[in-house]
Design goal:
Length: 104
């Protein structure tokens, strides 16, 4: 492959301006950490279902790579720890606290 030099950019005509409106969003009640986002992860759990967690609190650590830690993205209660075949980790679900739902 050779080096490509672009001499002129593409000018696309655009009329008007974007609409200055933010659409209302549904309130988030739960967040989850999904196993498919962490390939090869074998977690050592530091929380159980029903535990209250704070934002940034340690949830689990990778068994293969000690020192690689995963923390809570938000404060709330651990609603579910889902496991698949042979107890493989699938997801950890956190029900958000009122303060987190309101964005505080």
């Amino acid at each position: 492959m050779g080096l490509h030099n672009i001499r002129q950019g593409l000018r696309l005509p655009s009329a008007g301006e974007p609409e200055q409106m933010i659409a209302p969003a549904r309130m988030t009640r739960r967040v989850a950490l999904l196993a498919e986002d962490y390939v090869g992860l074998r977690p050592t759990m530091h929380v159980t279902e029903g535990d209250d967690v704070r934002r940034g609190q340690l949830l689990f650590e990778d068994k293969k790579r000690r020192g690689v830690r995963y923390t809570a993205p938000a404060a709330g209660t651990v609603v579910a720890i889902n496991r698949g075949e042979r107890r493989s980790f699938q997801s950890l679900v956190i029900g958000l606290s009122r303060d987190e739902q309101e964005g505080r």
